[in-house]
Specification:
single chain; alpha/beta; 6 helices; globular; binds magnesium ion
Length: 174
């Protein structure tokens, strides 16, 4: 059955629930990461200690990471300054090409690469269009309250409901 491009494979409250073991079990060797509201809220310019520790855990397990953000150069470069990951700004997610440079930099095939982000129509869809192995949605750390964002979140609701329905089926089959 063809996967829906919108429905994430996994949905977690925070990235910290995503462990290196879990990713390895899923055959993932590279991770494409969103920054804003996935790792830190918009107004936090640099990675927190918690983010650093989580990233280190992935690296120690041999999982490579890259940042793919729709935000601008200054934001992405400052966030990545002390991390030194491949990082791409103004990426144009969900376009298929938004993941292309990151895949090249990670040097992992799409099937062995995951995307982690907080937006269905940006991050999950980008992963779907780029044919990535696993798409993981996390709850936004802190939501923007503009009308546009509230509208986007409203549109995401049925997708998240479908995820929970699918997940219940998956669990009942186990
Ligand atoms: Mg985001």
């Amino acid at each position: 059955m063809r996967r829906s491009r919108f429905i994430p494979d996994y949905y977690f409250d925070t990235v910290y629930e995503i462990t290196p073991d879990m990713l390895k079990e899923l055959g993932i060797r590279g991770v494409i990461l969103d920054i804003d509201n996935t790792l830190v809220p918009y107004e936090i310019p640099e990675p927190t200690e918690e983010v650093r520790a989580w990233l280190s855990g992935l690296w120690e397990a041999g999982i490579k990471t890259a940042f793919v953000s729709n935000n601008h150069r200054d934001r992405v470069e400052l966030f990545n300054k002390t991390l030194g990951c491949p990082a791409f700004f103004d990426s144009g997610k969900p376009l298929k090409k938004s993941c292309r440079s990151a895949l090249k930099a990670l040097d992992t095939p799409p099937e062995e690469t995951a995307i982690i982000g907080d937006q269905v129509f940006t991050d999950v869809l980008a992963g779907g269009l780029a044919g990535l192995g696993i798409r993981i949605l996390v709850k936004p750390i802190k939501d923007k309250t503009s009308m546009f964002f509230r509208f986007k979140r409203l549109l995401e609701k049925p997708v998240i409901r479908s995820y929970h329905r699918k997940n219940r089926k998956r669990n009942s089959k186990k």
